[in-house]
Amino acid sequence: MADTLREIERKYEAGPHAGGATLPDLSRVAGVAAVTDEVTHKLDAVYYDTPDRRLAAAGITLRRRTGGEDEGWHLKLPVAPGARDEIRAPLSPDVPRALAALVRARVRRAPLVPLVRIRSRRTVSRLLDARGTLLAEASADRVRADRLGDGGRSARWTEFEVELASGTDPAFLDAVEKRLRKEGLRPSDAPSKLARALQETGEEQQKKPTRKPATAGDHVLAYIRQQTDALLAYDTAVRRDAEDSVHQMRVATRRLRSAFRTYGDVLDRKVTDPLGAELKRLAEELGADRDREVVAARLKESLAGLPGTLVLGPVRARLRIYAAGRARGTRKRVLALLDGERYLALLDALDALLADPPLRRAAARLAPEVLAGAVLHDYERLAGRVEKALGTGPGPERDTALHEARKAAKRARYAAEAAMPALGKPAKRFTSRMKDVQTLLGDHQDSVMTRTALRALAVRAHAAGESTFTLGLLYGREEQRAARDERELPQVWRKASRKRYRADL
C-alpha cells in the first residue's frame, strides 16, 4: 500500500541581485544552531498526466522518480497554499493501481501518459536546532525540463526550496524566507517544477481572463463550479478513507442538487433535473455509510456518559459489532460506486453543463434581484413545513414532518450560501439563522435514527438472552433529547423567521 506524508515547502528563484546558483548561508536564521554539509543528488523524474493535462489543471502531480532517498512513484495532492500530501509507491514500470485509483475522478477514461521529464542536480543542506533536531531541508536545484512529444522543447533554470521537517512550527519558514529575501531570492511564481516546465517549454494552455461575476448566471455558475470542484476533491479523500470525507462529499452533492432546484429561473431544469436525480442517487448511496456512522458515534458518546452500574450485559460489544458492520461492507460498496460508469458519466455531465450552460432569460439580469427572490421562495417553503410540523401531534407523523422541515431548512441555507457573493452580509446572516434551524432539526432526526437502531439492537440482544436494560435506558434518553428539540423549535424558529433577516436581502 502507498505511504503518505504531508509536505510543507516554499519555492524560490533568483532575483536580479541574487548571488548565484548556490544556497545562501542559513546558519544565521533564528532557531538554527547548525547547517549540515551539502549533499548532492541526481534526480530523474517523468511526470504523467492525461493528454489534455487534467491533473496539472487541478494542481496535482504524478511522477516516477529515480535517484535521491525517496525514489519511486509520487502523487502530490494540494491541501493548502504551500502544503501538499505526497503519496508514495515503490518503483514499477507502470503507474501503480493504488495511485491511479486516487485520480480516477479527474482522469476518468483518459490514459495517463508521460508528459515531461525533469532532471535535477540537487544540493541539500539540513537545518538543525541546538538539540540536533531537524527543522527543515534547504536545497538548490539545477533543473532541465524536456517536454515529451509536442516537438521536444526544453528549458533550464535554477530554483531553491525549503521543506519543513515533521513537527516544526510552520512559522519557521517565515524566518528562513526573511533571510533568503535578504540574499536576493524571491518566492517562485510557479507552484511546482511541473508547472514551470509546462510554462517554459511553451504552448501551454492560456487561461481565459476572468471577470468579476455580475449577472445572476455568473454567480450561479460560479457556485456550481465551486461545488463540482469540492465533489472531485472529496472523491479523492473518500478513496483515501479520510475522516469525515464521505459526509463532506455527500454535502457537495446536496449543494449542487439544491442549487439546480433553487435557481431554476437561471438554469433550465429540463437539463438540470436529470443531473439532480443522479446527484440524489449518489447522496443516498453515500448516506447509507454516513447514517450508520452518525448513529454509532452518538451511541458511543451516550454509553460513555452512563455510570458503570447502569451498563448491564455486553452492550459495548454490541455497539462495536454495529459500528464494524459499517466499515466491513459499505466502504467496498462506496469504492465500487465511485469506480462505476454511472458516476463517471455524472461527472462528465457536470463538466458539460459548465462548458455550455443551459441559461434562461433571468440569467442575464443583475444578480441581487434574481438571487434574493429565489432565496425568499425557499424560505416560504420552509415556513410552510415548520408550521405543519408544529401543528402535528407527537408521534411518527411529527417525526416525518420535522424531517421534511429539516430538508427545507437545508435548502434555504444552501440557497443563501450561493447568493452570499452577490448579497453580502444580509445573506450571511440569513444563512446563519437557517443553519440554526437545520442543526436543531438535524439533531432531532439523528435521534429518530438512533432510536430505530437501538430497537433493532435490543431485539437481537433479547433473542440472545442478554439484558436489554441499558439499551432501553439509552432509548429513553434519546426520547428525552428529541422532546427537548421539539420544545426548543418554536423559539429557534421565531428568531430565524424575524422579518428583518428577509427584508435586508
Notable characteristics:
globular, single chain, CYTH_domain, 505 residues, CYTH-like_dom_sf, CHAD_dom_sf, 54% helix, alpha+beta, 8-stranded antiparallel barrel
**Biggest pleated sheet:** 8 strands, antiparallel, barrel
The ordered string of helix (H) and strand (E) elements is: EEEHEEEHHEEEHEHHHHHHHHHHH
What radius of gyration results from the CA coordinates?
28 Å
Structural class computed from helices and strand pairing: alpha+beta
Low-confidence stretches: none
Shape: globular
pLDDT average, as an integer?
92
- Note the beta-strand portion: 15-25%
List how many beta strands DSSP finds: 10
Give the helix proportion (percent range): 40-55%
**Order of neighbouring strands in the sheet with most strands:** 1-6-5-4-3-7-8-9
First-to-last CA distance: 52 Å
How many helices? The count is: 15
What does this structure look like?
The chain is α+β, with helices and mostly antiparallel strands and 505 residues long. It is 54% helix and 18% strand. The chain is built from 15 helices and 10 strands. The protein has helices at residues 54-57, 97-102, 104-107, 172-182, 193-200, 216-239, 245-262, 269-304, 315-338, 341-355, 367-390, 396-423, 425-463, 469-496, 499-503; strands spanning 3-14, 34-35, 39-49, 61-66, 72-80, 83-89, 113-128, 134-147, 154-164, 185-187. Strands 1-6-5-4-3-7-8-9 form an 8-stranded antiparallel β-barrel. Helix 6 runs antiparallel to helix 10 (341-355) and helix 6 (216-239) crosses helix 11. The model has no long low-confidence stretch (mean pLDDT 92). It comes from Streptomyces nondiastaticus. Residues 183-216 are annotated as: Disordered. InterPro entries: CHAD_dom (IPR007899), CHAD_dom_sf (IPR038186), CYTH-like_dom_sf (IPR033469), CYTH_domain (IPR023577). This is CHAD domain-containing protein. Residues 213-498 form the CHAD domain.
